[in-house]
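Notes, Module 5: Reading structure tokens.

Key idea: the token line is not a picture. It is a compressed description, and you learn to read it the same way you learned to read a sequence, by spotting repeated patterns. We will look at two proteins. The first is printed below with its tokens.
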Amino acid sequence: MQHASTVSAPADGRAGITADLVRRLIAAQFPQWAGLPVVPVPVDGHDNRTYRLGEDMTVRLPTAAGYAPAVRKESLWLPQLAPHLPVAVPPILATGEPGEGYPYPWSVRGWLAGETAHPSRIGDMTAFAVQVAEFLLALRRCDSTGGPVAGEHSFYRGASPRHYDEETRRCLAALEGHIDTDLAAEVWAAALAATWTGRPVWFHGDIAAGNLLVAGGGLAAVIDFGTSGVGDPACDLVIAWTMFEGASREAFRAAVGGDPGMWARARGWALWKAMLVLCSALDTDPVMAAEQRRVIAHVLSDHLATA
């Protein structure tokens, strides 16, 4: 059972976070849990360090100032969203304050059973794709009144992908000769032209395999709402190309619905991220580079099919 984002990273030490720090924070602020074992989770994320606390809890600590606003956002909103969602989301048990030399707020959460989504753990990928779509639709139906409007706290997920225009154009220049940059530029232009005009709804912001927990072959929980907010839900459709293909992609698309503009923006989000990762991986990580090329190829092909 794991509670993690999509990036594997060392369990200790980032941003000065260690199991000993977690023990001291717990002892100082939540003495009722002092003495429980504190163990890093086997697969951790980049934005936060996560430790298992005893058998039934986790402690989650941001690794940098940019990720800290998510703590209070999740602590406030997850309890309000949870009753309206078809699968579990992280139960917030307590919110900690800076202390013991650690400068950010942090949280204690209930442990969720399941393993991160992988095809080997999923009984029927097409049925799983529909489950993910149903979760997203339920999230959109949640009352968005007073919710956190997309912006810096969500790393601009839920806003226009135009925020990343300069970065995307740098990637296009750097990837000349590695991908079809002419077609990629066309996909990006289509994403920017497809202006969102819908009403603001809840979005997750990082629907990816590492944030989906499976049990019994199906979707059991969705974690890591750090980039969530209220705005355009197109960013939540990126999984159509990163995890789904063929029948599962078509089932996801049909279940989610959405107009052509939403899917154009979704392709833009997927392309931006895949190109950004590919630029970093070109000379250092051939496996990651190959995966990002695969995603980009699917996005470009999908654009051609819908043009």
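Here is the second protein, with the sequence above and the tokens below, as before.
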Amino acid sequence: MIDDVALNFSASSLLLLNGILAIVMFSIAIDLLPRDFKALAHAPKPLLVGLCSQFLLLPALTFALVLVTTPMPSVALGLILVAACPGGNISNFITHRAGGNSALSVSMTAFATVGAIFLTPLNIAFWGNLYAPTRALLQATQIDPVSVAITVGLMLILPLALGVWLNHARPKITAKIRRPLQWLSMGIFVAFILAAIGANWANFVNLAGVIVVLVIAHNAIALGAGFSIATLTGLSAFDRRAVTIETGIQNSGLGLVLIFGFFGGLGGMAVVAAFWGIWHAVSGIALASLMSRTQAAR
């Protein structure tokens, strides 16, 4: 039974994943300066719309998907957990390729990452406890929101702050390392995910068929939610592309850290997060290719 499967993931592997995610976050942060945050104070609407899409609309729609499809509890909780995570580390790259507002995308990633300290554990607890089967899993694992917040803070906020500081204090250094570090960090992350899948190949093959369709549908809902709320609130096409992609690209790496750190590598949850990590890159790049064919109005 899928809910009884725990994937093989050692403490050293978890520590390595934490380090990789910290490097990825640092590579994003060195694109930012303190003035980027100040500029948003004068025109905060696109950022606020994006954060509402990320932390309010997507978790609510995910809960609706769970109610309609009634997947196994660990799969349902995996979907809820991924939806509770902030925007993913490749969203900025994909937004740039789509011809969207890259500055807005980077700022959304930064603000969502800070907000995730409180909002990620809150969303997991709130939506997970609304659905009886996932409520039982949460009670069985006795997840501590404070511990989740500390994990998120150390792994994401610290490298974010260091990256912004370095870009402000030593811009020549960050100019040299920015692109190589971003490509290197993404390459390491993808290699790590593939290695983890390889180490658990039999379980992934057995579980993937149950999960693939749900993850694809979930990702489509996320992209659609971002596009819809950006359109309904009157954002420009330039900003709308950033909000769409930011909502549809989730930090599934953070999700894996939480799953292996707090849920014992529960099979359904881990496969959901791992497949998200692959699929959102495929769907995001495909969507960016379509969007880039026309120039977005600002």
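Summary for the second protein:
- The radius of gyration is 18 Å.
- The mean pLDDT is 82.
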